[in-house]
Amino acid sequence: MARAKVLVTRAWPAEVEARLAAGYEVTLNPSDTALTLAELIAAAADYDAILPTVTDRIGAEVFAGVPRLRILGNYGVGFSHIATDAAKAAGVVVTNTPDVLSDCTADIAMTLILMAARRAGEGERLVRSGQWTGWRPTQLVGRKVSGAVLGIVGFGRIGQALAHRAHHGFGMRVLVQNRSAVAPEVLAACGAVQVDTLDDLLPKVDVLSLHCPGGAANRHLIGAAALGRMRPDAILVNTARGEVVDEGALAAALASGQIAAAGLDVYEAEPRVTPALMGMENVVLLPHLGSATHETRAAMGHRVVDNLDAFFAGENPPDRVV
Ligand code: 8YV
Which parts of the sequence belong to the D-isomer specific 2-hydroxyacid dehydrogenase NAD-binding domain (predicted)? Predict the structure, then answer.
């Protein structure tokens, strides 16, 4: 039987590429640069599967342009870059990679919380600049994280992993806002309390960390109005999706002192960052590192291939989202 043709849009960990090549007719993007929509459609024209990443915008045009396409195995948990309604209409299955990246993404959220609260980026820039003249009692004084109130928006796997770290590791008090009721035992496991609405949550928190999905439903969930409800000493952290935060409104809120600081791993138009944010000392900017460990990137790849194997064996893939 002919092997299924699989297009991998970016370079993957070598061990997963080898596993893929053993089971499929695989084409890897040799340049490892983000493909334009036209390039993607041309490259995938007669393929059965595309394995995209967050840098591939899979619009409705892809389904029209790739008539043989049967499955999109997304390398990542978030899939707001994929037009899922169009996938469904075209009869294309979509899978993602939950669980395996929760710990590492929560680690990056905690990193951003600590860096923003303790002014670690500023400190590193000071040392590297050669301008550090020595210790002073008032130098780069930040905020204490232990005992602070952490608000988590979206209490899925990653939000819960952060809550465990924050509560058990740092003694933070955790408040949660989620679209559905969270089971009492899940909240209790990390000392968390659920509040009803985002508006209830915002004025109560020292740190707000976002862990909800992206996409149209949550676009600019954190905009001028939400930022206006936060405290002037509060910190915003986003490791979810860039579109959840209105970057222009965030820059304005930081400039006016409406909130104190921010830590971002994701952006509205990656890799572009709103220029005003780039010049702010009280903003920590990371290049979408959430899942970037050797272990997790390999596990994500294996999860994609597990789904692919199930699909081509005629089974329902375990991480099917469409
Ligand atoms: C991925 C992520 O590495 O999984 C996600 O949703 O945000 C990242 O950690 C990225 O999306 C690759 O597609």
Answer: 110-290
Q: Is 242 in the pocket of ligand 1 (CB under 6 A)?
A: no
The residue whose CA has the least distance to atom 10 of ligand 1 is 76
In a domain, 322, yes or no: no
Question: pTM for this one?
Answer: 0.97
What residue ranges in the chain does DSSP mark as E strands? 5-8, 25-28, 49-51, 71-73, 93-95, 149-153, 173-177, 192-194, 207-210, 235-238, 261-264, 283-285
Q: Which of 82, 101, 289, 293 to mutate to test the pocket of ligand 1 (most atoms within 8 A of CB)?
A: 101
Give the distance, in angstroms, between the CA of residue 257 and the centroid of all CA atoms in the same chain: 26
Query: Hey, which residues are catalytic here?
Result: 241, 270, 288
One domain, residues 33 and 123: no
pLDDT tens for each residue of 140-154: 999 999 999 999 999
pLDDT tens column, 234-255: 999 999 999 999 999 999 999 9
Query: What total of structural domains would you count in the chain?
Result: 2
Residue 26, Cβ neighbours under 10 Å: how many? Answer: 20
CA atoms within 13 A of residue 56's CA, in its CB half-sphere: 30
User: Residue 171: which domain range?
Assistant: 102-285
- Among 291, 303, 319, 321, say which to mutate for ligand 1: greatest number of ligand atoms within 8 Å of CB: 291
Same domain, 156 and 261: yes
User: What's the pLDDT score for residue 278?
Assistant: 97
- Model ipTM value: 0.94
